[in-house]
Amino acid sequence: MKRALVVGGVLIVGAAALFVGGTTDKWFLDVVGLGVLLLGLTGVYDLVQTRHSITRNYPIAGHARFLLEHIRPEIQQYFVETNTQGTPFDRETRDLVYDRAKGNHGDEPFGTERDVTAVGYEFVAHSMRARPKPDTPQPRVRLGGRHCTQPYDIALLNVSAMSFGSLSGNAIEALNRGAAKGGFAHDTGEGSVSTYHTRGGGDLIMEVASGYFGCRTPEGRFDDAKFAARAGLDQVKAINIKISQGAKPGLGGLLPGSKVNAEVAEARGVPVGTTVVSPPVHPEFSTPAELIDFIDRLRGLSGGKPVGFKICIGSRREFLAICKAMLERGSTPDFIIVDGSEGGTGAGPVEFEDHVGMPLTEALMFVHNALVGVGLRHEVRIGASGKVATGIDIVKRICQGADFTMSARAMMFAVGCIQAQTCHTNTCPVGVATQDPQRARALVVPDKAERVFQYQEKTVNSARQIVASMGLDDFDQLNPRKLFRRVDPQVTKTYHDLFEWLEPEQLLTDPPEAWERDWLEAATDTFEPASNSGPREDQPAMSRSNH
What does pLDDT average to over the chain? Predict the structure, then answer.
């Protein structure tokens, strides 16, 4: 309403200036009046158009951003690099996401902006027997082990966990509608299933975090009946237990009371206006064996749907203890989503985003390696989450051990995020991360849903084209030999040659020296170490011979 009043005021001033100029022969008032009137008409258009969230929320003034970006695009990149918590996307990647979301091909002229001679630069090798990109539906990965009676075939790229409450209802609905059109999955985040998730009709992965939102007792404990009711929805295809996340590993979630309106409170099962803080650990289990039991419990309550967990790796020994518990209990999760410490959408503490948790590359290879080493890799699918944005990101992560990927920040870009870094303040200028209805109206659901769909489709198609250019027929043929890293200005090596890769069941028979102590100290009845020696700091993270 305020925006409309301001625009109306501009129109009145412009019309008045024209009237006075016409009646007094003061020509300069005609010029001023015409200019002001044109600005007012621009404001009217800004308020009713559906393409640009910035100008819907900031009519007339919002055009200054686009003007600056057009004249000096590096100005916008400066703000991205200085404002973004965690490791920001570079301009090339960010612009590629925007272009694909808008339906463009995302082709940049005049070569790469990257320094290909820099240590750490990664690439894949094309082949002289390159294939054409397959003209078939997107590949799928089946989630569902021995104990799962309702398996789910997940896409290669999906919407990672972002909660209603943190994101606006319009943003959630746009993400879910895009997922429905593209046939990929949408993780609800720890805020549970809301009406905005169900309106879109897209496949959902219901996340269960330590606060048990949407399935909690008044005291904050897990409620079997409430969980079964929501997990039993046809739209819910899988259950994801959040152990930890890359943006703030070791911390629970926090939602300011200013964002907990009636709709958010209903979805989460908390009082309106209450600042919501999740515990750092789950009250329902305290040992690796109890975690496996909890997974089995949720699988039964959900009617046999796939159940897995999301984790940012910290202690190698703790994860190996979970692997031992799988063997001891004779049961496994159906999937594990590995969240890299470089992930995060803008509301995590800076020091945690920058310095706590294992980066995705090391964590992904370690988890793959551990499952190979205990002989369970064939039963557990691995997802990769953390700065996944492009087709080459998908290819790299599969080479490193993943089966599928999840994206949060890039999906936020697709619905209009400009990285304003006001996620926690309820003042998001583009209506993505706010519960203010006036700000949220800037995000037009049908338009942004189409952008989410186009971004995912074009990104997966890019990954398929890259795989075809490598002379491969399928993503299953990717392995560590296909991914190269520059180790000094003159030398590149494959991931196969750079890292140690375990053989199936090697941890059970002859654990390598770099793994031995962690493996021997891992215990299924505790997450505490068996001694006070602490974890080793000189051990490699790797392994993946049979992937």
Answer: 85
* DSSP SS3 for 431: coil
Local structure of 50: helix, strand or coil = coil
SS3 79: helix
Q: 3-class SS at 174?
A: helix
Is 159 within 8 Å of 186 (Cβ atoms)?
Answer: yes
pLDDT tens profile 485-526: 999 989 999 999 999 999 999 999 999 999 999 999 999 999
DSSP symbols for 439-456? HHTTS-HHHHHHHHHHHH
Band of the pLDDT at 245, cuts 50, 70, 90?
confident
Quick one: which of 121, 544, 157 has its CA closest to 362?
Answer: 544
How far apart (Å, rounded) are the C-alpha atoms in residues 271 and 260? Answer: 8
Task: Quickly state the pLDDT bin for 471 (edges 50, 70, 90).
Answer: very high
The dihedral over CA atoms of 280, 349, 320, 143, expressed in degrees to the nearest 10, equals 90
Alpha carbon of 165 to those of 190, 339, 342, 435: distances in Å? 10, 21, 23, 7
Is there a contact between 240 and 161 (Cβ–Cβ < 8 Å)?
yes
Strand-pairing partners, residue 488, are 491
Is 478 in contact with 201 (CB distance < 8 Å)? Answer: no
According to the model, what pLDDT value does residue 84 have?
A: 42
**Fold category of 140-487 in CATH:** TIM Barrel (3.20.20)
Which residues are CB-contacts of 272 (< 8 A; sequence separation ≥ 6)? 260, 261, 262, 265
Distances (CA, A) of 276 to 254, 259, 293, 310: 6, 10, 27, 21
| pLDDT reported for residue 70 | 54
Neighbouring-strand partners of residue 277:
254
Name the residue ranges covered by the structural domains of the chain.
2-83, 140-487
Residue the block writes with tokens 């789950």: 282
Q: Which pTM does this prediction carry?
A: 0.86
